[in-house]
Amino acid sequence: MEEQARIGFVREMARKVLRKYGITQPGTAVKDIAEGEGLKLVYRAWPNRVGALLLRAEKTIGVNSNHHPHRQRFSIAHELGHYFLNHRQDDYENGITLDNPPVGDDFSKIQNTEAHGFASELLVPLPIIKEAYKTEKDAKALAEMFNVSLEVMFIALGKHNLLK
Predict the structure, then answer these.
(1) Pairwise CA distance, residues 158 & 164, whole Å
(2) Mean pLDDT within 20-38
(3) Sign, Cα dihedral of 136, 138, 141, 142
(4) Is the pLDDT score of 95 beyond 90?
(5) Pick the CATH number of 7-125 from 3.20.20.140, 2.40.40.10, 3.40.1440.60, 1.10.10.2910
(6) Is the dihedral of CA 149, 19, 15, 116 positive or negative?
(7) Up-side HSE of residue 100: CA atoms within 13 Å toward CB?
(8) Full-prediction pTM beyond 0.70?
(9) 123 by DSSP, 3-state: which?
(10) Closest C-alpha to 133, from 156, 109, 107
């Protein structure tokens, strides 16, 4: 039987983190969450293909300084997903540093799917988007409110069946 991503578990883990940090409004402070977990954020100018990387042993998240702030936020949230979901990357970390980022996929497809789902729920949580959507239906305004890209907002609205 083929292993599958644990989507329900992933969303609940993101909501648990939101509760832990008292986040009840749009605009999740991913930097505060990272720092609250003792993770240092370090920005580097990397090739476009590298968004961010988690160096668990160094308690560091490296972030591509060349990317748009929305992409940086999503990349940090994605790496927090790997962190909170306790994805192991021991083989991947061998030789990988801030100055030598990975050139290919660093985690399994399932782990990346889970980290992506975690990031989506962390940045656009269902209870908060449902509340915001009661008074604001414009996707661009919602994206600004949640400090995410328009693409991330459309994906979240679609996932939560809020697109009309």
Answers:
(1) 9
(2) 97
(3) positive
(4) no
(5) 1.10.10.2910
(6) positive
(7) 6
(8) yes
(9) helix
(10) 156
